[in-house]
Write a structure and sequence with these properties.
The protein has helices at residues 23-33, 48-51, 56-59, 74-77, 207-211; strands at 2-4, 14-16, 37-41, 64-68, 71-72, 85-89, 92-93, 99-100, 109-113, 118-119, 129-135, 150-156, 172-176, 195-199, 219-223, 242-246, 267-270. With 281 residues, the chain is mainly beta. The strands form three sheets. The chain has a 13-stranded mixed β-sheet, covered by helices on one side. The protein is elongated. It starts with a strand and ends in an 11-residue tail after the last strand.
Length: 281
């Protein structure tokens, strides 16, 4: 065992489990260092630790768990009853029985690939942040939810995207690599939205005009969006503080570039053909 982290510069410290570590030594070490965060990986930790009941006392005290390169079974995952934050990287969920997220009564943040085994993901009473990949729940309708504040979906089957308005507490929405996303006029109903990303969703129509109706936006990130008729509508976003357009297409009305310098306190970075650089940073 040793102390480490998942990415350079991250504030949280983790106890990293190694093969051969005993439950007693891990528990004593985590208590001594006052660390309630754990990293378990298939290569470094092995799978035996997850099925060994002697570790249950340690697992029940963990608040942040990072899993990497393993197959996840709900039977041992349920041991982490006090989780507040779960990160899943390069893992698959196995089994046939549902994985019920309501079993984690304190969970607030979840970063994971999606699995059809999931139940009660979008009706959890404390879960505020959800980042999911490969959301293959076709024709899904998002239920009414006043808890979720941040939602990221990367790669997805077709859903009833307009039902995202049922997540009425959303402050941040990130939609990436979703070819079925076309109409986004429903964004106007997300009255608390402050941060939005739309990347590699090339079928979206009227992108700029649909975004600017959300007057609460402070941060906009757009990438791989194709041609844009004009940037002029962005002047409606008087609260906008950060605008990024990466690998964009062509700006048809290049004269509209000047509108960005009329927005006070705006920092912007634009990668588009025909864009005329102004005073942005």
């Amino acid at each position: 065992m040793y102390i480490g982290t998942t990415t350079p510069g991250r504030r949280e410290r983790f106890v990293i489990v190694e093969k051969g570590d005993s439950a007693q030594s891990l528990l004593a070490f985590s208590q001594k260092e006052q660390i309630a965060n754990l990293i378990i990986s298939g290569q470094e930790s092995g799978l035996e630790v997850l099925s060994d009941e002697s570790f249950s006392s340690l697992f029940s005290s963990i608040e942040i768990l990072h899993l990497r390169d393993i197959s996840i079974d709900k039977n041992w995952l349920y041991q982490f009853v006090n989780l507040k934050h779960l990160e899943v990287k390069n893992c698959k969920y196995k089994g046939k029985e549902p994985l019920d997220w309501l079993m984690f009564t304190a969970l607030e943040e979840l970063f994971t690939p999606y699995s059809k085994l999931f139940v009660n993901l979008f009706v959890h009473p404390t879960l505020k942040t959800i980042f999911i990949e490969n959301f293959d729940k076709e024709n899904f309708i998002f239920p009414l939810n006043s808890i979720i504040e941040t939602l990221s979906i990367e790669k997805s089957e077709e859903c009833t995207w307009s039902s995202l308005v049922n997540l009425n507490a959303l402050k941040a929405l990130y939609l990436v690599k979703i070819p079925t996303l076309i109409d986004i006029t429903w964004l106007s109903k997300l009255t608390q939205l402050e941060d939005i990303e739309i990347s590699s969703c090339k079928e979206v129509s009227n992108l700029i005009t649909s975004i600017v109706v959300v007057s609460t936006l402070t941060t906009v990130y757009l990438s791989s969006i194709g041609d844009v008729k004009s940037l002029s509508p962005l002047q409606k976003l008087q609260n906008l503080r950060e605008l990024t357009i990466e690998t964009g297409g062509r700006l048809i009305d290049k004269e509209s570039s000047v509108v960005l310098d009329r927005l006070s306190n705006l920092e912007y970075s634009i990668e588009m053909k025909n864009f005329v650089e102004g005073n942005g940073t």
